[in-house]
Design brief:
The protein is mainly beta. The protein has one helix at 4-20; strands at residues 24-31, 36-40, 44-50, 53-58, 63-67, 71-78, 81-87, 90-97, 102-106, 112-118, 123-129, 134-136, 143-149, 152-158. The strands form four sheets. The protein has a four-stranded antiparallel beta sheet, with no helix packed on it.
């Protein structure tokens, strides 16, 4: 049987991946008494399982500590259809997500370099796009891709 330390490490790795590729919009901790605590991902600095506790360090400096024995479940709310981010003062959106043949990027003002990487980190495509341009992904296999626009990364699901 795996140790609690192993599961805590695995959980921490999952959280790091979920946060870094933009999978989660928020974290909801449901307690055994059905009380729910929701924290937006933008407010989370770090989430850890340590010493039998779930520790949420917030960007405000606040720390939320909950004994793991009080936790019924932890849910990461998934992105739905449109991914948004602030890049260089503009709100960038990527849709549809998941996609089949094309993806559209809105919210960019000038011609912008967009790079798409496989989940393994291989560059799949680089294009220069303007507001509302479609990017063809029809030649991509089904799976998860990372779309980099300026300093922001988005997770893209290809069906």
């Amino acid at each position: 049987m795996k140790s609690l330390r192993f599961y805590c490490l695995l959980f921490s790795l999952f959280i790091s991946l979920a946060l870094s590729i933009g999978y989660a919009k928020g974290v909801k901790i449901t307690l055994n008494d059905q009380t729910e605590r929701f924290t937006s991902i933008s407010d989370v600095a770090k989430i850890m399982l340590t010493d039998g506790k779930v520790v949420v360090n917030k960007t405000s400096g606040d720390v939320e500590v909950t004994p793991i024995s009080d936790v019924k479940n932890i849910t990461f709310s998934e992105n739905t259809g449109v991914s948004n981010a602030l890049v260089d003062g503009y709100t960038i959106s990527l849709y549809p997500n998941p996609c089949t043949d094309v993806v559209v990027i809105n919210g960019i003002s000038d011609a912008t370099k967009v790079s798409i990487y496989s989940i393994e980190g291989k560059l799949a495509k680089t294009v220069i796009v303007s507001q509302g341009d479609e990017i063809s992904v029809s030649d991509f296999g089904a799976g998860v891709y990372i779309v980099k626009v300026g300093s922001q990364s988005f997770k893209l699901m290809k069906k």
